[in-house]
Amino acid sequence: MGAGREHAHAPHRRVHRLDDLQDLPDLREGPLTLPFKALVLAGSRPGEIDSAAAYAGVSHKGLITLEGRTLLDRVLGAVQAAGADGIGVSTSDAAIVSALPQGVAAIAASTEGPSQSVREGAETLGFPLLITTVDHALLKPEWIAQFLADAPADADVCLMLAPEARVRAAAPDTKRTYLAFRDGRFSGCNLFLFRSQAALPAIALWRRVEQNRKQPWKIAAMLGPGLLVRYLLGLLTLDEAIARLGLLAGVRAAAVRAQDGLAAVDVDKPADLDLVRKIVGESA
């Protein structure tokens, strides 16, 4: 991340320190009035070489550059611009830690996986806690603002999903994993909200979901026999499924639908990196 301050009216404003937020327009005006903390997941499994990072010739996917900025820098800039008043990055990678700007906390990633890293991040940062990932290359503050504004006030846990039609309209070439419901197919957007400590029981269920994220039917099986049959017959809506999963976890859970289909695009593999470079008009 380069040194120096840029003018607030610059078209691509970069935010390097938390106190730089005073120079930005307040994205929390209007319906969005929730101060929040933000946790960026940037962990990696020991001994595992990330395919997207290797493809880009870097040691960690957070160090991949897009439009002259690392993915880490882009994600931090988005959450800062959205109004986060405390930010932590969950990682055990020394290069990522050394790249963190002043005011952003390094939180050691759990060896037990992302869900446990979320628990440790929540204990460090507090609530309400927005959670995203370092490979959310196209993340925009407007998406975060919409997510927090549309999150039901009585939900302990919220997650953003994008309708398939919006994903395909925004990125026709992307290949996503979709969950099918009566009201359509949806893809996850790597944006979660833990409103308070009451959300923490969801982490055990999260662990089960992350283990089966590439096999949607196994996630659906967690709903129980009756609702599983309804899911398989295409009779279950997204909201019904999320509410049921919340009950299983002992929390109130809700889904927020993304307005921009690009919110479902991350950099999970080399083809994804090619796609986001194409979207921003950058040559590989």
From TrEMBL:
Residues 57-166 form the MobA-like NTP transferase domain. Keywords: Magnesium, Nucleotidyltransferase, Transferase. GO terms for molecular function: nucleotidyltransferase activity. It comes from the Bacteria. This is GTP--adenosylcobinamide-phosphate guanylyltransferase. It comes from Caulobacter radicis. The lineage of its organism: Bacteria, Pseudomonadati, Pseudomonadota, Alphaproteobacteria, Caulobacterales.
